[in-house]
Design goal:
47% of the residues lie in helices and 8% in strands. The longest helix is centred in the last third of the chain and has 45 residues. A hairpin with a 7-residue loop joins β1 and β2. A 3-stranded antiparallel β-sheet has the order 1-2-3. It is extended, with a radius of gyration of 29 Å. Among the domains are: 55 residues, no CATH class; 58 residues, no CATH class. By secondary structure, it is mostly helical.
Length: 195
């Protein structure tokens, strides 16, 4: 009988979905034919293990991945920054990692204009962020004013969004009133479709 995953993971007692494994004493054992042949099961597990190993190595700094990946925001427009790899293809003499604003492709981020910012090399950005972080940790008196400035900026953004939302609501109500007036005028035969 092939050794299946559920039996191997029985000591794990719970899944991330919230379902729980039953204790071993509550299991009902039955003799059933295997749905998948052991060779097919082993063959399907090979790419899974290879992908899991690749994901482990890609998350480690030795894989030349940007340390600040998905943590950096654009200073121009405030969108998140993605990363890309650039290098010489034919001779593989150099390879650089870049952080670039997602606003460079406005169709994917829902913007009209492209962001004017330039790409930033990750090997130059990482030390600057690390040195700034070390400076903050050496002098913790810098952190409360920075946090206060961040909180004030966040509050200003929230209030600006609230003002924009109120303006859009007023505009929508005004357009609804105008369309209702046009409909009333058409129904009273003051205007016609030919006019």
């Amino acid at each position: 009988m092939p050794k299946y995953r559920k039996k191997d993971e029985a000591p794990l007692r719970s899944l991330t979905t919230g379902r729980r494994y039953r204790p071993d004493t509550a299991w009902v054992w039955s003799e059933a034919p295997a749905i998948i042949a052991p060779e097919g099961f082993a063959k399907a597990q090979r790419p899974w293990r290879r992908n899991a190993e690749g994901a482990r190595t890609m998350s480690q700094p030795s894989s030349r991945r940007s340390v600040l990946r998905r943590l950096v925001k654009c200073g121009e427009c405030g969108l998140g920054m993605g990363w890309s790899r650039d290098g010489s293809v034919s001779q593989k003499r150099y390879e650089y990692l870049y952080d670039h604003c997602k606003g460079h492709s406005p169709l994917t981020c829902g913007r009209v204009d492209t962001c004017p910012s330039r790409r930033v090399r990750a090997d130059r950005l990482d030390p600057v962020v690390w040195d700034t972080l070390c400076q903050w940790l050496r002098t913790p008196t810098l952190i409360p004013p920075l946090h206060q400035a961040w909180a004030q900026a966040t509050q200003q953004n929230i209030s600006a969004l609230a003002v924009q939302q109120a303006q859009r609501l007023q505009r929508r109500q005004r357009l609804a009133r105008q369309s209702q007036r046009l409909l009333d005028a058409y129904q009273a035969e003051i205007i016609s479709l030919d006019a």
